[in-house]
Amino acid sequence: MRNDPLEEPNDTLSKDLLRSRNLTLHKLHVFCTIAKFNSVTRAAEYLNIAQPAVTAHLRSLEKSLGVKLVRKAGRNIELTQAGRRTLAWAKETIQRSSDMFLDLADIKKGLIGRTRIASSMVAGTYKLSETIIAFKKEFPSARISVSMASPYLATESVLLGDCDFGITLVDHNRDTSRLEIELLWREPLYLVAAIESRLVGDVAHIDELGTLPLITPPKGQMARELIDEVLRAAGVVRTNSVLAFGHPEPILNAIRADVGAGFVFKSALPRDPEASGLRLVHTPDLEIAMPLFLVYDKKTVFSAPQIQLMDRIRQSFAEPA
What we know:
The strands form three sheets. Strands 3, 4, 5, 6, 9, 10 and 11 form a seven-stranded mixed sheet that branches. A two-stranded antiparallel sheet has the order 1-2. α2 packs across α5 and α3 crosses α4. The protein contains twelve helices and eleven strands. By secondary structure, it is α/β, with parallel strands linked by helices.
């Protein structure tokens, strides 16, 4: 007769599960302190516990992981390769645990909790910031931080757990298999000139775009790559970039000064372009749009307020500007 699985001996459990039983937050904290001082003695003094206890925690951690974490380096010690990898994991684990306790404390107090967002510059400066401000006014106890980052760094922040989710472009050079990726919208870029500019009329065809002086993002930015790619596909061999800025505001200022025309994100345009000294130029031969995504780790468990905020962001980007 077969035994009840719950009563089977421990050797039927995975070795990883058995080893993980000895991995306490306290031991990880002790190990991080040893790594900070490169010394068991100084770690013991800092933690105000006996040196043999610190050594015992270190040896127990090494036994659980099955690797040597430190080695002698003169009078001190240094981390092994496995120790350096374990230190990064330990710091992340402690930080995530601390965040969890803070979130639980907020829940007990009836507060919304904290949300960290990584955003592309244009989204974070314009449309997303408006949504966050409106949400904060509705829920004053919400604590939200938005960091501007390149697509690669935004993705990296989400994967490392430094941010809860990202509003960004997708860098296809990064492994995104762990991420849930939702298309929020495709943001159009419009050709814009100074309102009295003679560089271009109200309509610009492909033959004009090849020689038209343009204010562009710098090479390497995905917006610039998209502009170059669309122009090449339409027959413009080389983008005539006469000035480059990494943010839409100086691009708009240069356009107003009639240094050149430029392709500008819709959300970065003033509500009344003409009143701001700008003129939209129709480009019947091409359309440029940048896809913007909501990205988050598939394993992330969001709080109810975070889900509410994400839904608000989805609604905001779905609404016509």
